[in-house]
Amino acid sequence: MTQEVHEPTDITPDKDGGVIKQILRAGEGNESPVPGDNVSVHYVGTLDDGTQFDSSRDRGEHFKFDLGKGSVIKAWDLGIATMKKGELAKFTCKPKYAYGEVGSPPKIPSNATLIFEVELVSWKGIAQGEDLSLKNDGSIIRHITTKGKGWKNPNEGALVKVHYVGRHGENVFEDREVEFTVGDAVISNVIEGLDIAVKRMKEGEKCRLDIKPSMAYGSKGNPDLGVPPDAELVYDVELLSFENAKESWEMEPHEKLEQSIIAKTKGTKFFKEGNYKVALKYYDKCQKNLEFETTLKGEDEEKRKEVIVQAHLNMAMCHLKMEQYVKVRDHCNKALDLDDKCVKAYFRRGQAYYAGNDFDLARKDFEKACEIEPENKAAKNQVKICEQKIKQFDKKEKAKYQGMFEKFAAEDSKKSDGEKGDDSK
């Protein structure tokens, strides 16, 4: 079998011919070391006339260094970062990327072009990377491979353009360029981990993201892409460009109201699809846009309150579906702070109490719903169910305590008989 021939390639950022790479033997897998990793290589270095000036192979030991730290010549920091494990490559390095005018006497003269034959043996990820996850739980770890430019980052609602390659082990399951709105990435079939990470990137930045299942495809996986359940994924991402959205404080009051209604509509779409986690994000955005808006008057102010109440009610319903009952009560309480006659808030809070076996408080909320809306059949029915549960509970408690009393009475009787026996001796 003949070995594949690889053409020489200029790997310098400026394409100035300063470092030319030719792969002599392809490596394995798709991963390459990133800045901060401790790499282990074998190499042979020669001048352009063929004179050998150094060789780790002659010494019989690997050469190790931290990539991207400036501890080796610039050509190596550039070149090793392009290699795969086991790869053998030749690098032709102009003086600018080697030892320059000074050289490295006595073996390397001034302005020398150097040729290195390098084998990447292995590397260790000493650099732990940066945890970008919202809970600091290690579910999104970033390793920057190329720094971006400027100081701005995409904000929530920004239109971003990225190129990414998604991998599970050695399997590349996705390689695409896509535009999406930050916070709406799911609409473009982009995972949550990338949606969160892109807000910390700068234009032109390239990075590797190590993403846990909770921020990717979770326990279901993605059969269409060949991603199995509970898969940890790696994404190589480049932020090509972005255009930031208006911040909430930059919007006019009517714009905030419009954006909140749009967010609520999107949330409802995902709720109907059973995607409660994503729906929650939109409902939360809906209420946050208007939470501190105090300049609206008349009908607009009433509409603001109505939208916030609806957002909290919808969040309560999402948490109810997810069996997060404390959060259900919290959102119902917030809705009632704005509208103390909100039947749905009492009803959903009652459902949360009922799910937590707090039947007395559940009954009170359902009764309150009936008081405000006497014809509410669902609330009336829940009152009856709560009363049945309370009776059952009372009956069980009575039986339990009756049994305890009988047990204690029997023990006392035995003790009394024993004492009488002692007296008769």
Automatic annotation (TrEMBL):
PROSITE patterns in the record: FKBP_PPIASE (PS50059), TPR (PS50005), TPR_REGION (PS50293)
Pfam families: FKBP_C, TPR_1
Catalytic activity: [protein]-peptidylproline (omega=180) = [protein]-peptidylproline (omega=0)
Domain PPIase FKBP-type span(s) in chain numbering: 36-124, 157-243
Stored SUPFAM superfamilies: FKBP-like, TPR-like
Domain of life: Eukaryota
Segments annotated as TPR repeats: 343-376
InterPro entries: FKBP4/5/8-like, PPIase_dom_sf, PPIase_FKBP_dom, TPR-like_helical_dom_sf, TPR_rpt
Record carries keyword Thylakoid: no
Keywords: Isomerase, Repeat, Rotamase, TPR repeat
Broad class of enzyme this protein falls into: isomerase
Enzyme Commission numbers on file: 5.2.1.8
A single MF term (Gene Ontology): peptidyl-prolyl cis-trans isomerase activity
Protein's name according to its UniProt entry: peptidylprolyl isomerase
